[in-house]
């Protein structure tokens, strides 16, 4: 899982770089109810899917 965490960190950095100067975007932290993976992204809860197993049963941990 370390590899996917570093990839997600890289994606977060890219999102931050692309956001420069634009409107503030809400960042959500999710946990997958099926496999337990956690991740952060600006994807809204209505369309969020697990980055590990693609399950759409996810819990919002924080925003």
Folded structure, characterized:
The chain has a 3-stranded antiparallel β-sheet with strand order 2-1-3. It has a single domain, classed as Rubrerythrin, domain 2 (Single Sheet), CATH 2.20.28. The protein has 63 residues and is α+β, with helices and mostly antiparallel strands. Helix content is 29%, strand content 22%. A hairpin with a 5-residue loop joins strand 1 and strand 2. The protein has 1 helix and 3 strands; from the N terminus they run αβββ. The model has no long low-confidence stretch (mean pLDDT 82). This is Rubrerythrin-like domain-containing protein.
Brief overview:
By secondary structure, the chain is α+β, with helices and mostly antiparallel strands. It has one domain (2-62): Rubrerythrin, domain 2 (Single Sheet). It has one helix spanning 2-19; strands spanning 28-32, 38-41, 58-62.
CATH architecture: Single Sheet
What's the number of structural domains?
1
CATH topology: Rubrerythrin, domain 2
* CATH class wording: Mainly Beta
Low-pLDDT sequence parts: none
Beta-strand share of residues? 15-25%
List the topology elements:
Blueprint: H1 2-19, E1 28-32, E2 38-41, E3 58-62
Antiparallel strand pairs: 1-2, 1-3
Feature tags:
single chain, alpha+beta, 63 residues, Rubrerythrin-like domain-containing protein, 22% strand, Rubrerythrin, domain 2, 3-stranded antiparallel β-sheet, 3 strands, globular
């Amino acid at each position: 899982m370390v590899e996917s965490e570093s990839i997600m960190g890289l994606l977060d950095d890219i999102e931050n770089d692309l956001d420069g100067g634009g409107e503030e975007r809400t960042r959500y932290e999710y946990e997958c109810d099926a496999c337990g993976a956690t991740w952060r992204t600006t994807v809204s809860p209505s369309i969020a899917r697990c980055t590990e197993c693609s399950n759409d049963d996810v819990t919002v941990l924080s925003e």
